[in-house]
Amino acid sequence: MKLKPVMNAIIGFAILLTVWQAVITIGKYDTVLFPPPLKVWEGIVSLIQDGTLFTHFQVSLYRFLAGYLSAVVAAIILGLIFGRLPSLWNVLDPVAQVIRPVSPIAWSPFIVLWFGIGDIPAIVIIFIAAFFPVLLSTVSAVRKVDQSYLKVAHNLEIKGIKLLTKIIFPAAFPYIANGLHIAVGTAWIFLVAGEMVGAQSGLGYLIIDARNSMRLDLVMAGILFIGISGLLLDKAVGLFETWINRQWGIRNN
């Protein structure tokens, strides 16, 4: 049974590669402008052999983890507090709903002025991208906590921080996990977008540099690696979610 998802993935990618090659062959596209799968594979191999791919990936991964993890911690803490203080959240919710739809890239002129050039601007962009999905899911999750848990906690005189960490957070975590998955996708997307704008390293910069050199095979190689990396990061969050649920005795649906 465990092999079935792997086989489905193999079949899906095989269909994608077949359609990709068929479009190039039937449409008679210039392989320089629309590189075929084999040429892109050769580009991936060349990037691996000279170490370019892993160098840029390490930079991007560091930026992602720094921004994502800090956003998750801050958003969960604030979400637990706001979820227990509905009057305060009713005041702050309109502000959050106004700021949330604004693309993190739109803040980049201010971010560069405030934090300079380097890793920090990319980390801040990732923080903004990941913060709101986790915050909103946490607030919503706290409000959905079964009231029987709170009654038991009240009877046992569990209050304050202990109530949040021992009762509310474990009960709300399955819903918070949805925000973690959404935040992974948005943060990874805006990391690459941020690196395309002003960075001199990372996977986004790799694509822009390859485009400037008219190496579209390397551009496509970078795109594929970004997609695969995003998938693996999402799977990593899923494994973490499963582990947490197992520690707390929560059954997965």
Task: Provide an overview of this structure.
The protein is mainly α. It folds into 2 domains: 1-30; 36-247, MetI-like (MetI-like fold). It is 82% helix and 0% strand. The protein is built from 10 helices and no strands. It has helices at 3-27, 37-49, 52-84, 86-99, 108-115, 119-143, 147-155, 160-198, 203-212, 216-247. Helix 8 runs antiparallel to helix 10 (216-247). The longest helix has 39 residues, at 160-198. The chain is elongated. One of its GO terms (cellular component) is plasma membrane. Residues 57-237 form the ABC transmembrane type-1 domain. InterPro entries: MetI-like, MetI-like_sf.
Which helices and strands appear, and what pairs or packs with what?
Layout (H helix, E strand, L loop, with lengths): L2 H25 L9 H13 L2 H33 L1 H14 L8 H8 L3 H25 L3 H9 L4 H39 L4 H10 L3 H32 L6
Helix pairs in contact: 2-10, 3-6, 3-8, 3-9, 5-6, 6-8, 8-9, 8-10, 9-10
Summarize the structure in short:
The chain contains ten helices and no strands.
Overall spatial form: elongated
In this structure, how is the largest beta sheet organized? none
- In the CATH classification, which architecture of the largest domain applies? Orthogonal Bundle
Which series of helices and strands comes N to C?
Answer: HHHHHHHHHH
